[in-house]
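Budget justification, computational time. The allocation requested in the original proposal was used primarily to generate structure tokens for proteins on the priority list. As evidence of use, we reproduce two of the resulting records. The first is shown immediately below.
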Amino acid sequence: MRRAVRRVARRAVLAGALPLALVTVWWLASAGSTDPFRPPLRTILRAFAEVWTGERLRADVVPSLLRLLAGYALAAVAGVAVGTVVGRYRRVRAVCEPVLEFLRAVPPPVLVPVIMLFAGIGDAMKVTVIAAGCVWPVLLNTVEGVRGIDPVLLETARSYGVTGPARLRHLVLRAASPQIVAGLRQALSVGIILMVISEMFAASDGIGFTVVQFQRGFAIPQMWTGILVLGLLGLALSVLFRVVERRVLGWYHGLRAATRRP
């Protein structure tokens, strides 16, 4: 028990050492700043407490999170479904690969004006932009994960009569799950970026909209607080994702730990 507590404490110290050092450097380097565009950190923190009240969180952070969740979920479902089919069948892959490579090369922010023409300027546009960018890491990692399944496992499953949905669930998706989860992790970072970009176009709420409004009104400390909120949001989502990943891929991490033991 003591060893486990000591290990957790050591990890917490290691995880917090660099952020604490960076904040200290920022505080000291900006302490005497008189530049209105680079205010001291103490001014930004004071503005943070004034700006991001409960009402502001409900008005801006919650809508942003809901859009991110909706777009991310659509991308996850579509990416895993299409990636499984493309990775499983060679002919489908041969037909789809050129089109997928073409579409992947188009940056999602460039599509914002086009998506606005079809989806309007409401939440549907923002969710579509997020999904359009998040789908590619999930799809491509799913394709590679399905393609990399050991042929011996496939033959063994066929020999035991494991076919259809059971084969898909217990063999294909399970064997490809480490790479699928890796794609989902990459997509989360992309989704946060696209969430902000989409809210900078014809929006009336959201973190991206708020940051732009502060910048246009020359409320520079308040603008920096919005950037801090985005960083803290990304950190919280990353920690949450890691917890879910540990639970979903517990078998995989246990297998790797067992193979590393002498």
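The second record produced under the same allocation is shown here.
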Amino acid sequence: MSSWPSPSSRGRSPASSTACSTRWPRMSAADEFGEIARLFRPLTRGAAGAFDLLDDAAVVPGRPGFDLVVTKDAIVEGVHAPFGEAPGLLAQKLVRVNLSDLAAKAAEPFAGFLAVAWSERFGPDERAAFAAALGADLAAFGVDLLGGDTVATPGPFWGSFTALGWVPEGRMLRRAGARPGEGLWVSGTVGDGALGLAVAKGQLNDPSGGLVERYRRPTPRLDLRELLRAHATAAADVSDGLVADAGHIAEASGVGLRLDLERLPLSAAARRWLADQPDEAAARLSLAVGGDDYEIVCTAAVADPGMPGFARVGDVVDGAGIEVRMAGLRLDPGSGGWRHL
């Protein structure tokens, strides 16, 4: 995921953003459990293993013939979203970036665990708004809340979600599996997330609101599950940037990749932006490394007729790493995308 300025750049010293203070007001046990019952118990949707969130652990029942896939991602205010972002948008992005990881594994989501650290600005109304949006998304994607934790923090808001999904036994789609001679494919369009981040930062106009919506509330490509199971040999979700995430496939598979920037599938909004840029190659590269698209990049046979909704953007070759080209010329992609550390 692409980054915002760190809290320390806004006048908070590193010590004050990380130190634990015994003077910081803590939620009482009664308040915490009451809030969990009021805000989060309904989100279990009666799942038996959640025990109405009255216990401190959950049971995940098995499913014959399937493997359990588990993924976990976090968002931090001021890093993955702007300070002051609406609580509901934080909740929805938290859910969706995790379900995107399951989508890349061709897994069917069914449950999750939530941990949140409420910052000072999260009073009762903000917490209720967060829970309402969280519940709406969990219901929309068929996910039950099985448990988690809530705490208060003197720093920025952060949240973490652990998503669980089912995949037929032995069929989880990994980053490893690409073979020379295959094609490199990506779903949907690339670059809207990066442009949406620029809009959210006030650096770009977005009259339709489509770009910033794509950044704030990405859609996990769970609709591609059956297609990926049938055709893809390796896959990753495009969270850190197409170049970086395709590079993860190359590394895990022990192959090389060639990415052709002129083949990038672009939305109408991205094409309008591109038309105003003085250097097309540099502009296309910025879209390919920008991140926050939450599409699926995968490898499959070059002439595979079963890849509707995907664009072929390159090739799997012998070698290592990823080579980025525009009109046959090699470009330096730098780090290739967002780095978390």
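A brief technical remark on that second record: Residues 87-104 form the longest helix (18 residues).
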